[in-house]
Amino acid sequence: MTRAPPPWLVTFQRHFSETIRTPLDASSGTLRAQVHRYPVALRDATRAGPQGGPEARLAVYNRQYWFRLFGALQGEFPLVAQLMGLFHFNQAAQRFLLKHPPRGVDLRLAAQGFAPWLGGVPSLEAPGAVPREALVQAAAIDAAWSDVWMAPEVPAWSPRPEELAHVDARRLRCSPTVRLVEEDWALVELRRTLGSEVEDRRLALPPRHARPRAWAVIRQGAALGQLALSPARASLMRALETKTLGHALAEVEASLDGEDRAALLREVSGWMAEGRRLGFWSGLA
Amino acid sequence: MTALPRAALGLGLRLPHVAALEREWPSSVEYVEIISENYLSAAAPPRQRLEWVRQKVPIVLHGVGLNLLGHEPIDEAYLEQVARLADSVDAPFVTDHLSWGRASGLSHHDLLPVPFRPEVVAYAAERAAFVQARLGRPFGLENLSTYAAFHESTMTEWAFYTSVVREAGCSFMLDINNVYVSSVNHHFDPRTYLEAIDFGRVLQVHMAGHEPQPDGTIIDTHDRPVLPQVWHLYREAWLRGGPFPTLLEWDGHIPPLAVAVAELEKAREARR
């Protein structure tokens, strides 16, 4: 291909891009187009139609741009969206997308980075009594669901006898089809109840647990499952992400006492066997 | 390459329908169309689903990310991925839109219009011919639903569309609902649009629902049944240039599979 675009087309597309990315204004209680912010050159270049002036026509694209992206983020973060309510979620999504506008062809990737952004944002508007900490945990759970679902198929680690002989001194490679999440509220159970379409209704935050709970979110084939992990098992799983099996076991054993420590020593073999069966690891690092 | 029967009926493959399709494949659904971008990642479940569907019926590819009218170069890495996907499912053809969606490194995830001018025809035709050659299989361009028109246009939409397809040597992916939507939004006779189409080059026709707005504009929403006036236009197209493969798109408020299939079957009635 040798032909360059007509220069006016480049300018036209830059103005159009600026127009449709103009943020929607929430101050009236609904999200409204701010047509006065559209570039004058594009407003002048657009014909009035039978149903409205140039600004009204461009506003269709402006709203469409935002609501398609809001829909994509709602689809990836349904738990956060329904805990916040869609009006407030969309405003948070707009703030994120203004800082991180999409660049790739895959619409799902527009949501990439939303969970860490939510964790770092200084203030979030969510009506009612949903603490910011709960929203951050919900985002991590939604992200785990999505990451596991979109992971490539990776064969589970099936150790050879010679690998088992030296396994204590090796690090295990975590499978992308498994993610660990922690919660202070019963958010994983709540996430499980959500269907494929995000509904415009606010979910109530479940009561707070007496102590944090941990889960493994697992994909096997095309099925997603969740496995509750005891505190000792969760600590071991976390340690195995960065340490050899021997070091991880020693570290976790030293950090526990009472029943948690006893559980570790009593059940570690069973946990490791079940982890292999469920595909927690894809091999030795 | 798999051939598609000329009068075939197809359905856009959407996740909420997969379980029902697995239980029993409706005989009316003679092929499916997938959104190419949903199958380009390494994610395993979508790929596994395609392998299963491919055993049942032919699969055609419909893209939304080509950016044919954009000022940036065609993304050849993306095009390579689409070509590999088409090869993997032995797609009879690949389609995308006569639109742009990227500017200055940003993706807008929309199908955006341009002023209709001869210099854009030449620019678009060269790019479409390149795409078709790279894909190594028939490539169809879809007409848009549009909500804005521009003073700089010197051609009608249908003259622009047919000129690009003719100069590129590619095919039409004619969306009848889009013709209708644009005809209302820009006050033209949709039959004039159909008169300009060379139906011998139509790879496929799309049908979908749209949403009328309080101000009279209509928006291409794909979230409801096809409206009767669009079925009437479909019948006119069929009488003028049928047979052609016909596919129903339903992307929002997706109903149970049986409802979508019943809607698709209305195409048979409209052809009589």
Q: Could you walk me through the main structural features you see in this protein, from its secondary elements to its overall organization?
A:
The complex is a heterodimer of chains A (285) and B (272). Chain A is an alpha+beta fold. Chain A has 2 domains: 150 residues, no CATH class; 135 residues, Outer Surface Protein A, domain 3 (Alpha-Beta Complex), CATH 3.90.930. Chain A has 12 helices and 5 strands. The model of chain A has no long low-confidence stretch (mean pLDDT 93). By secondary structure, chain B is an alpha/beta fold. Chain B is globular. The two termini of chain B are 31 Å apart. The mean pLDDT of chain B is 96. Chains A and B meet through α1 and α3 of A and α2, β6 and α4 of B.
Describe this structure in a few short sentences.
With 285 residues, chain A is an alpha+beta fold. Chain A is 49% helix and 12% strand.
Walk me through the topology.
The complex is a heterodimer of chains A (285) and B (272).
Chain A: H1 7-20, H2 40-45, H3 54-76, H4 78-84, H5 86-99, H6 114-120, H7 132-149, H8 161-165, E1 172-174, E2 178-185, H9 187-192, E3 208-220, E4 223-229, H10 231-240, H11 245-255, H12 258-277, E5 281-284
Chain B: E1 9-12, H1 15-23, E2 31-35, H2 44-56, E3 59-62, H3 76-89, E4 94-97, E5 100-103, E6 106-112, H4 118-135, E7 139-142, H5 157-168, E8 171-175, H6 176-186, H7 190-195, E9 202-207, E10 211-212, E11 218-219, H8 228-241, E12 246-248, H9 257-271
Parallel strand pairs in B: 1-2, 1-12, 2-3, 3-4, 4-7, 7-8, 8-9, 9-12
Antiparallel strand pairs in B: 5-6, 10-11
Helix pairs in contact in B: 4-5, 8-9
**Percent helix among the residues of chain A?**
40-55%
What global shape of chain B is seen?
A: globular
| Widest β-sheet, arrangement of strands of chain B | 1-2-3-4-7-8-9-12
- Strand proportion of chain B: 15-25%
Question: Which word captures the global form of chain A?
Answer: elongated
Strand tally of chain A: 5
Number of domains of chain B: 1
H/E element sequence of chain A: HHHHHHHHEEHEEHHHE
Give the C-level CATH assignment of chain B. Answer: Alpha Beta
Ends apart, CA distance between termini of chain B: 31 Å
Classified in CATH, the superfamily of chain B is Divalent-metal-dependent TIM barrel enzymes
SS field, number of helical segments of chain B: 9
Question: Structural class, from helix and strand content of chain B?
Answer: alpha/beta
**Mean pLDDT score of chain B, rounded?**
96
Largest interface by residue count?
Answer: A-B, 52 and 57 residues
Largest sheet of chain A: 3 strands, antiparallel
How large, in whole angstroms, is the Cα Rg of chain A? 24 Å
Please state how the strands of the largest beta sheet of chain A are arranged side by side.
2-3-4
CATH architecture of chain B: Alpha-Beta Barrel
Secondary-structure element pattern of chain B, one letter each: EHEHEHEEEHEHEHHEEEHEH
Strand content of chain A: 5-15%
